[in-house]
Amino acid sequence: MPALDDLLTCLRFASVSTDSKHNDDTRACAQWLVAKLQGMGLTTQLHETPGHPVIVAKNKHVAGRRTVLLYGHYDVQPVEPLSEWLSPPFEPTIRDGRIYCRGATDNKGQLIAHVSGLAETLAQHNDLPVNLTILFEGEEEIGSPNLKPFLEAHRQELACDVVAISDTGMVAEGVGTFTYGLRGISCMEVKVHGPSIDLHSGIFGGAVANPATMAARLVSTLHDAEGRVQIDGFYDGVQPLQEWERKSWADLGDGAAETLALTGVPALFGESGYTERECRWARPTAEVNGIGGGYQGEGSKTVIPREAFFKLSFRLVPDQNAERILDLAEAHLRAHAPRTVRLEIKRGHTGSAYLMNPNSALGQAAQRALKTTFGGKVALIREGGSIPIVQAFKDVLSADTLLLGLALPDCQAHAPNENFPIANLEAGIRLNQALLRELGA
Amino acid sequence: MPALDDLLTCLRFASVSTDSKHNDDTRACAQWLVAKLQGMGLTTQLHETPGHPVIVAKNKHVAGRRTVLLYGHYDVQPVEPLSEWLSPPFEPTIRDGRIYCRGATDNKGQLIAHVSGLAETLAQHNDLPVNLTILFEGEEEIGSPNLKPFLEAHRQELACDVVAISDTGMVAEGVGTFTYGLRGISCMEVKVHGPSIDLHSGIFGGAVANPATMAARLVSTLHDAEGRVQIDGFYDGVQPLQEWERKSWADLGDGAAETLALTGVPALFGESGYTERECRWARPTAEVNGIGGGYQGEGSKTVIPREAFFKLSFRLVPDQNAERILDLAEAHLRAHAPRTVRLEIKRGHTGSAYLMNPNSALGQAAQRALKTTFGGKVALIREGGSIPIVQAFKDVLSADTLLLGLALPDCQAHAPNENFPIANLEAGIRLNQALLRELGA
């Protein structure tokens, strides 16, 4: 199966965008995609950016046809913790009908499904039912810092009627799923500096503040016991859930049982008054993605560490403002930090939350394509993850985005043993073809 | 100078007792010491233990002489963070009259000072003024787990009138310092387990408890804002400071200014009502020696980590019970942990606090030896660090311990760029000779 061969090839590039040691791998992946798209007869260009390159490819555009921008990303998350992987993270390995590899589901499997759908259609008809513009980037996992400027600089070239992306999830195997909302994100790293060197905790303990303790105390101010964020103004502008959404999501079945089983946590957690899906899809959060300081090795080492850090990300919902959230968080942390330590705060990437009307004309076309591909009833959902570029498409290109995900809940995106079912690769090829037919009609 | 050559040789052994990768280095250091002591004419034995070996060496004991047990340790702390060292941690390097190396001050510099003092005396007189028993161990930095059983098993062989140790500090350069009290220690490692794998913080954030956040929240329950420990019963039995101690310590000068300068912290910290020396020497603490969880690398990775950990050590004062403190801490942590995570608590080593009367006959002999060596007034202090074996000498051998330290406040024990002044090596040789003369008189 050529689609599978292509996916395996694409997966072998260790295109970890956040880690500069992998810059060559990331570029090699982009170059392989360029060659692939050119080989399909698409006019393809690799555009340099201050970071990883952007790929733009087009068929011959014909006046009167709808223009569809197909977006995907060829970069992947880091692989740590390496010891948790059952097979090497960049050697795609097939077990029980699934391909295990970093990037298998996020986003290379879904991206290659579209590329393969296009390749089949072009091979059969030497044409597509729409004007197609492909836009693949290599910085999604680090917040797409260079894509919005790229959109602005190439506004004419990228003009389109609608954007299509497969980078979201299906509610269950075989259930076509249309995602009409995403959470936004704001990231921040905080360092807590204390003494100029690690100190002997016996000699100095009791007379100097411990940066690890102080980092923990700062983190503890971020939430109440049920996870409600305690930063002043954090919930300003948060849109309440609509009744039809709550009902539609409740109809999807017992999300709590599924999440318990998927995650293996001892018990679920979250704000009272909201179901677990509502907590994940429509409520904002503050999460510690990493914390560290002091001795990390085996046994004990009785030091007061010179510094400690924590990495925060906030998931946002309409209409929170991502930059304002960082302002509020910084003010909160500085107000709560004692003068016995020094804070260093580094802002990371941000992206707005996204919400569209799933029953617009374009939304209905997407729902028909999903029904053709998967049969049965299409699930209408929001997702908790963030694709900040979706809001950028709205802002710069004035285009809505159709999110037609192919990831199953247990595909372990961002985690060890990430995987993608071969059946979803095949379904994705058919979905690409059905979607372009519907949009071209 | 043969003493310096010996010290440099001894320092080159990377005898990190907590790290099993260094077991061969630790043993090699012990073997070198055995050869050295044998070469001086002492009857020397290397005793195997379940961990690192113990060395016992004796001169020919003569009835009617006082028996002095001289204790030291040849193991050292880990060297991390390696990047902070100005010269390689196991290549002793001399700069401005100080020897920089892991173990330079704690404890190899002080141990070799005694060995060299003995070597000189034996070379001159072929005799010592006391019955000497040397006891050197290789597990002090991991809490001496095998030394107390060793003492019990060799009670007769190690019987003595007094113990002498140089493993503590001098209040300032050239000021003879007698340490009559030490804090005890209890160690504990806590793991907070959540999901079975690292989760995508967008997909799952809001519905599952974050182990890094929960670890931080647990740490934050340990103290109030000024560092008073909030564990129920923690202060039970804590002996109040005596007036003569408070006065004597205040007479040592401005400890706060010195600690600020030494540590480089933005401001000091500690319980109100106590000076910084009192906080460090006579008040108990709870310190986080290490904390970790989630992404530790460059940039961001938006996960909810599967687990997080923190390593705690408690410094104890008379009459806290080290095992009971671990019971209380475990009960506190379990009571404060939400059911959305699972705690795994691993107890580490413990050691009692120590306090002797500095004006006993033996204490006065020690003070005279210090005065002979350094001149001026002898400082009477307690110390914040822990040498649990001192209490074991009291319990098993019924012997008090004379703590005659040679470390300066900026010798950076346990920290990068640990160092020891060559002048203190020379003073330590004279102190050994003066002490044995006083004790032999």
Summarize the structure.
Chain A is of the alpha+beta class and 441 residues long. Chain A is built from 13 helices and 18 strands.
Report on this model:
The structure is a homodimer of 441-residue chains. Chain A is globular, with a radius of gyration of 23 Å. Chain A has 2 domains: 269 residues, Zn peptidases (Aminopeptidase, 3-Layer(aba) Sandwich), CATH 3.40.630; 123 residues, 2-Layer Sandwich (Alpha-Beta Plaits). In chain A, the strands form 4 sheets. In chain A, strands 1, 2, 3, 6, 7, 8, 15, 16 and 17 form a 9-stranded mixed β-sheet that branches. Helix content of chain A is 34%, strand content 22%. Chain A is an alpha+beta fold and 441 residues long. The two termini of chain A are 29 Å apart. In chain A, helix 1 runs antiparallel to helix 3, helix 4 runs parallel beside helix 12 and helix 11 packs across helix 13. Chain A contains 13 helices and 18 strands. Chains A and B meet through strand 9, strand 10, helix 5, helix 6 and helix 9 of A and strand 9, strand 10, helix 5, helix 6 and helix 9 of B.
Strands, helices and their partners?
2 copies of one chain form a homodimer.
Chain A: H1 2-11, H2 23-39, E1 43-47, E2 54-58, E3 67-73, E4 93-95, E5 98-100, H3 104-125, E6 131-137, H4 147-153, E7 162-165, E8 177-182, E9 184-193, E10 199-200, H5 201-204, H6 211-220, H7 243-250, H8 255-263, H9 276-282, E11 285-294, E12 303-304, E13 307-316, H10 322-336, E14 342-351, E15 354-355, H11 361-374, E16 379-383, H12 388-397, E17 401-404, E18 419-421, H13 422-440
Parallel strand pairs in A: 3-6, 3-7, 7-17, 8-16
Antiparallel strand pairs in A: 1-2, 2-6, 4-5, 5-18, 8-15, 8-17, 9-13, 9-14, 10-12, 11-13
